[in-house]
Amino acid sequence: MVNNIIKLEFLKPGSPYQNGFVERFNRSYREEVLD
Questions:
Q1: Checking phi first, is residue 30 left (phi over 0); if not, alpha (psi -120 to 50) or beta?
Q2: Which of 13-17, 20-24, 28-32 has the lowest mean pLDDT?
Q3: Fewest CB within a 10 Å sphere: which of 2, 11, 22, 23?
């Protein structure tokens, strides 16, 4: 049996330097859908 180590990392909202792909999507969604 193989044990896998899973590490959870919590990111601050609005922090593009931590997760650029998701923050870019959020920005595009806000601009195109919510405005």
A1: alpha
A2: 13-17
A3: 2
Distance CA 15, CA 21 (A): 11
Instruction: Confirm if 25 and 18 have CB atoms less than 8 A apart.
Output: no
pTM confidence score:
0.45
Euclidean distance between CA atoms 16 and 20, whole angstroms: 5
Q: Using 50, 70 and 90 to split pLDDT, how confident is the model at 16?
A: low
Residue 10 has what DSSP assignment? -
Dihedral in degrees, nearest 10, Cα atoms 25, 29, 32, 35 = -140
